[in-house]
Amino acid sequence: MNSASEVDNPAGQASHSHGANGPPRRNFVTEFAAIVTGGLLGVIPAVAGMLFYADPLTRKKKGAGGGEDGFNRVATLAELPTDGTPVRFTVQADRVDAWNVFRNQTIGTVYLRRIDDQNVIAFNDICPHLGCKVDYKPVDSQFFCPCHSSAFDLEGKKLNKIPPRPLDVLEVKVKPDGTVWVKYQDFQGGIEEKVVVS
Ligand code: FES
What we know:
The chain is of the alpha+beta class.
C-alpha cells in the first residue's frame, strides 16, 4: 500500500524542496527577493555618496550673495532722505562655498540715493580706479576717493580724469512694502568697461 506521500504524488517525484541527490532547492521568489534586496543595499549608499559629492556641482546657482534672484534686502525707503542725500549701507547675504552655507555675511557696501517713492539709485562704493572705498562729502555734494583723489558727482559721473569710468551703478528693486533690494556685484577696476568679477 502506498504511503501518504505517494498518494499525494503518484508519479513518485519529489514534491518539496529536496532533490534526489543535490542540495535543497530554494524557492525562486525568495532567491529573487534576496538578490533585489542585496542589490538595493549596495546601490542606495553608492547613489547617496555620488549625490553628496556631486552636490556642489548640481546646487542651484544663485546671484552674488545668494539672495532672491541675486537681490538682497538692503534698506527701506524710510531710511533714505527724501532730498536724495546718499547713505551708505552694508549688503548682507548668505555665502555658499562647495560644502557650507554662511548666514548673513557682509558681501559689500553701497550708497543708496532716493529719487522718489519708486526709484532709488545704488552705487557700489568701490572706486573704479584701483579699488579703494569712496566716501561721500556732503559739503561738496560729491563722492571722493582718498587714495588717488578720484571724484564723482551725485549721479556717479567722473569729475576728473583719474577714474577710468563712472561709479558702478547696481540694479535696484523697490518693493510695494517699501523695502529696497540691491543686486550686489563687484567690477574689475582700472578699465573703462564695466566687467563683473563676482
Ligand atoms: S583707487 Fe580711488 S582714486 Fe585710485
